[in-house]
Amino acid sequence: MKLPINWLKEYVKVDNPQELIEKMTSIGHMQDGSPKNVNGDIVYDLEIRQNRPDCLSIIGLAREAAAILNKKLKNPLNEFSEINIHDKKIDVTIDDPSLCYRFKTFVIEGIKIQPSPDWLVNKLIAYGIKPINNIIDITNYVMVEVGEPLHAFDIRDITENKIIIRRAKKGESIIVIGGKKVALTEDDLLVTDPQKPLGLAGIIGGDKTGVKNDTTTIVLEGATYNQATIRRSSIRHSLRTEASTRHEKFLHPHLAEMGLRRAVQLIEKLAGGKVTGQTDCYPTPEKDISIAVSLENINKTGGINIDVKKSVNILKSLEIDTEDESNGTISTKVPYFRTDLIQEADIVEEVLRLFGYDNIPERLPSLPPPKYIQSKTYDLEEEIRDILVACGFDEEITEPLTNEENPALNPVKLENSLSSEKIMLRTTLKESLLKAFGEQQKHRKNVIEVFEVGKIYFMESEEYKEQRIVGGISSYKDNSYTHLKGVIELLFAKLGYEYNENVITIEPINNNSFFFQINIDQLLSGKKVTTQKVLTSPPQLNLQDISIVVEKAVPVGNIVGELKDISPLVYSVSLGEEPQMINENEKSVFLHIAFSSPDKTLTNEDVEPIRESIIQLLKDKHHARLR
Amino acid sequence: MDDPGKLLDNLRDKLNNVKSSTDIENLRIEFLGRNGLVNQLLQKIKDVAPDQKKEYGQKVNTLKSQIEELLQDEEKEFKQTTTLNIDITLPGIKPKVGNLHPTTIVIRKINQFFRYLGYSVYEGPEIETNEFNFEKLNLPKDHPARELADTLYIQEPEYLLRTHTSSVETRAMTQEKLPLRIVVPGKVYRNETSNPTNNSMFYQYEGLIVDKNISMADLKGTLIAFVKFLYGQETKTRFRCKYYPQVEPGAGLDVECKFCQGKGCSVCKYRGFIEVLGSGMVHPNVLKNCGIDPKVWSGFAFGMGLDRLVMLQYGINDIRKLYSGELVYKI
Predict the structure, then answer these.
(1) CATH number at residue A21
(2) N or C: which terminus of chain B has fewer CB atoms within 10 Å of its end residue's CB?
(3) Are residues B65 and B133 in the same domain?
(4) Cis bond leading into B245, ω under 30°?
């Protein structure tokens, strides 16, 4: 909201604008950007939050300024007398009262269209609205001053003098001010006469139905609409106007009355007209709101110590009337323009923000920390990251939105994505890691190892599932596969889980690159083992080498595993060298076996029986022959 | 007395054959050790005539310092020659270790602070329900934050991608026993056209405390201590009123812009301050929606976007690069 300081000064005395703006920032209206100089006036821009449409007006901001500066507010809205006109002149019908809460019109005759006086023109220019003629300028002026958007029609354009507020019909369209043709939907709200649309309600008027140079009688309207309807229409048609910015928020129906009266006052003064008709369609008048607030609650919430008198003064400075301050409870009457004040906590905030957030003390909660409820999966994921980073892997985080289908899983699809590349959630980490892998290749690295800890998402028996996984791609010199397997074995050992092939997927990417994925949720339910031993002295080992020849297809990893389990005295089994093909069908395997006992140093005689059974097993099960 | 010159010659001979610093150390023991040759000479003082004892003592002491000097020189020379065999200006060979993603590093740093204050890291689903993402958070049906334009729906209106990590707070308040202190780092989603400052997925970090007698003073103290931890003790802060539907009263915490020292520049959009945290006292409606009695319990919540923090720290100027697999780390 633009705030020209000279305009503000009409209602409240301001000595130091910059100081005021800093205070306004502190009470919730943050300065946005640097002040601009427009024809000698200083114009600030304030960010007004969603719940404060009353501050989308100069009077609203003046009220806040008066309260924070402890000054008197000169409010022109307090000076009206009743308009005693009973002739309607216009019939108003609201089709659906849940979309339009109030629609009020004044018919003003005998108007002379002419340019506005300088004082008005200068104010509009300072705010940023182009002056056009006295009637349009007054409606704009009142919108900015009071916060209620108004619209003036030429009465000649309203067929049968009837106005109907209704939803647009299918296929209906309207040409709005500026000449843009808008194709409407049934969710749009229109101000119409029996024949045609007159304007898109709360957003913009029709192109041909407004004030013209020869207009002498106008229908001035002020209305209150369903905010969501206006907001959606405005978004749907990319029509963001000063009017829609206000109507899409909670404006009180009484503000329509106030805005109209102010406009009538100015029109009579500047355009010479006379009110001859008044129609008010206001099916369910808003009720007054009273809220009781306890002083104890104010002090407990703020962590401060304020007394009743000061609290009451703050509330009164904001035009919130108070009464019955006994028993530490203040009864308040919420003024109509404060549509954000609904319950006690809202009143508490009013007192605290004017008391000053700067005056709230700083402390740390003094209570003991509660029960430790840190997620176990979170800790496990952190451990996985640390281990993989120590193994040389770089971490990636990639966006889970994708368009890559994966036949194995039923994807979770989005209904309303703006981008055709982001229509569903990923069912694998492979696609995004491949992209990361490709990026690394561009940097001409010879060893590339990347990983991501994240989730995949899929549908399973009509339910949405999220599964934690860690995935990665490894391209490591010329032995990527055994290297990657070693990393995964190390990862399981370090995490303290038994190596479990069922939770691991390894797939080749090309000759020397492999993708892997581990299901963390399944890993967590796996068997815990202590694979990381802590030795306090070097083990006494008896070392035995066995060199065998087996058929090409024999899985050497299985042999190693079987030998490890053959006796508790087997300390370790490793390969002396990579298995070598010795002819077309056979390979040599050089087994390196260490024996150890906690009780004694093992001699060759001690281990001979085990060696025998090993050889027996190799011969019987794997048809090995000794070399 | 033996000829001290002989002893020195003997030492010089042996020094010529020294091959390692251990050899030098052995010579030191042989000559200067407790039972070394010099001490043996000194012990012989008892056999020297009384009038010559003084002169004898001086001679041995001179010999001792000569030997020390010889040994020291040799040691120095030895070190130089052995070092000179290596070009010590060659760059070191760095072991290959991996790198964490910058967002992970920043999350860990922030976790560190809040875990010190007794908060646990808490998690929740990314595919959320209308109930936990909106309804319980005091975001009424017609609230602008719920417009189709901002939320990515899986099945409107019931299932969606969480639009903020606050959904995890309503889950924690509904599921866990009180009192409660949690922080929630995580991915959130908005239906936005991606550009250098906005992406449809980004990271938020939120925190929540629910206990007895929690006040705005606790909130202010916690947040200011946090930003000083993050940005340095000298950081100037601004604690101001700000509206969010899920809190009442609401507050924002800003830090003075480092680029202009609060004078206003393009980085801070001429505000002089940069918004860091949104926060406030948990709205009584939110407490009630989660089955908590606001007369007994109170709490505060705070939240921040992480990506801008990460981008500033690592000099990344496009948020899309952070999460597209395009980061390559160089140390």
Answers:
(1) 3.30.56.10
(2) C
(3) no
(4) no
Query: Which contiguous run of DSSP H or E holds residue A384?
Result: helix A376-390
B218/A363 Cβ within 8 A: yes
- Residues of chain A numbered 334-353 and touching chain B (CB < 8 Å): 340, 343-346, 348-349, 352-353
Per residue of chain B (331 residues), what is the pLDDT tens digit? 556 678 888 888 888 888 777 888 888 888 888 888 888 888 888 888 888 888 888 888 888 888 888 888 888 877 766 666 777 788 888 888 999 999 999 999 999 999 999 999 999 999 999 999 999 999 877 777 676 568 999 998 899 999 999 999 999 999 999 999 999 999 999 988 888 889 999 999 999 999 999 999 999 999 999 999 999 999 999 999 999 999 999 999 999 988 888 888 888 888 889 999 999 999 999 999 999 999 999 999 999 999 989 998 898 989 999 999 888 888 7
What CATH number did the domain enclosing A482 receive? 3.30.930.10
Cα distance from A176 to chain B (closest Cα, Å)?
24
Query: What does the pLDDT look like over A189-221, one tens digit per residue?
Result: 999 999 999 999 999 999 988 999 999 999 999
Please, which residues bridge with residue A448 across strands? A475
State the residue range of the domain holding B9: 4-84
Looking at beta carbons, which residues of chain B come within 8 Å of A449?
98
Domain contains B136 = yes
d(CA A53, CA A39): 28
Pair (A354, A390) in one structural domain: no
Q: Shortest CB distance from B325 goes to which of A28, A357, A396?
A: A396
For residues B69 and B107, membership in a common domain is answered with: no
Question: B309 and B208, same structural domain?
Answer: yes
- Say how many residues make up chain B: 331
Q: How far apart are CA B64 and CA B60, in angstroms?
A: 6
**Same structural domain, A266 and A306:** no
CB contact under 8 A, B152 and A416: yes
pLDDT tens track for A129-165: 999 999 999 999 999 999 999 999 999 999 999 999 9
What is the distance between the terminal CA atoms of chain B, rounded to a whole angstrom?
A: 66
Chain A residues inside the 8 Å CB shell of B120: 372-375
Q: Does A477 touch chain B (CB under 8 A)?
A: no
Hey, are the CB atoms on B104 and A395 less than 8 Å from each other?
Answer: yes
Specify whether the CB–CB gap between B167 and B204 falls below 8 A: no
The CA–CA distances, whole Å, from A626 to A200, A549, A619, B245 equal 93, 6, 9, 78
CB B216 within 8 A of CB B302: no
**CB contact, 8 Å: A19 with chain B?**
no
Q: How many domains does chain B have?
A: 2
Min CA distance, A26 vs chain B (Å)?
5
What length is written for chain A?
627
State the smallest CA–CA distance between residue A223 and chain B in angstroms: 19
pLDDT in tens, B203-256: 999 999 999 999 999 999 999 999 999 999 999 999 999 999 999 999 999 999
User: Under a CB-based contact definition with an 8 Å cutoff, are residues A244 and A234 in contact?
Assistant: yes
Percent of chain A with pLDDT over 90: 83
Do B98 and A388 contact (CB within 8 A), yes or no?
yes
Whether B132 is in a domain gets the answer yes
* Contact (Cβ atoms closer than 8 angstroms) between residue B64 and residue B41: no
Nearest CA in chain B to A236: B149
Per the CB < 8 Å rule, is B121 touching A28? no
Domain ends where: A468, A492, A524?
A524
A373/B250 CB distance under 8 A: no
Which of these, B124, B185, B130, lies nearest to B152 by C-alpha position? B130
User: Which of A378, A451, A464 lies at the smallest CB-CB distance from B154?
Assistant: A464
Residues A43 and A187 in one domain: no
Under an 8 A CB cutoff, do B243 and A52 touch? yes
